[in-house]
Design a protein that fits this description.
alpha/beta, Rossmann fold, UDP-galactose 4-epimerase, domain 1, seven-stranded parallel beta sheet, 10 helices, 37% helix
Amino acid sequence: MKVLITGGAGYIGSHMVRMLVGAGHDVSVIDTLEYGYKASIPKDIRLFVANVGNREALDRIFSGKPEAVIHFAGYINVEESVRDPLRYMTNNVSSPLVLLEAMEAHGVNKLIFSSTAAVYGTPTIVPIPEDHPKAPTSPYGLSKWNFEQLLAYFDRRGTIRSISLRYFNAAGASLDGNYGEAHEPETHIIPLAMKTAMGQQPSFSLYGTHYPTKDGTCVRDYIHIEDLCQAHVLMLDALAAGHKTAVYNVGTGECVTNREMVAAVKRETGVDFAVVETDPRPGDPHTLVADPTRLTGEFGWKPKHSDISTIVGSAWKWHQKKRYQSTNAC
């Protein structure tokens, strides 16, 4: 299949590019390279350096007649979204609306959307089912929920069928350790803890220690990037076979606190680095754990690499290769 990947030079997007290319798909990428890395995607992949809100660029891209779009492009920093909500609504809603209009104009009718568990806000039911009420606690979560609603509108118009995947915590690196997570600025717990273990910062900040959880810190559900991308492959096949517009959680249903994750990083690295307890970050729900039974029941999808040992071990392998912010960062 001919597939356009937005944000394909980023952490998840570039992994998706390599997986689809390995499976024989014809892939092209649009990315601003604001946060992505050109070198993280294969050299023979067509890369368009543009924003998804650039209609002129999109018309050129769609003249190549891609059959489906996987939409990863978007800002993801929860704390930043609280400080600058308009930036997030513009980039995560208004700009990709132009993408949807271009798809409609060119007859491209299949899209997979990189959504988030942040649409739920602080849950009243754990694990969280897809029909849980939506009450985002950050503009980031709100922007993703608003775009899901736009997708529902285009589905009602009969022009675009979509599957939204609500990620919980994407984590880990390629199993060979050659490609890994390197955001700038970095806000995710595993790479921040590993930067601390490697002496790149003096201490690790543990945000919030008085939540109503078993050890006072946030609870999360971690999904290995390999398992997450495999779920996208299943969704691509489903849309190609005529699957209707739908939404699925992508997670394991396993609870891991921030303290437990820090301890896992210390075990894997063998470094007992300094941890500083500090105030909660604005917009962070204290517990986000998936009920993935809809995805597993309909598609037989099961995570194979999402145990904490494999997640942390693959990430540490990546960091040990000294490739943080290098040409292989993604």
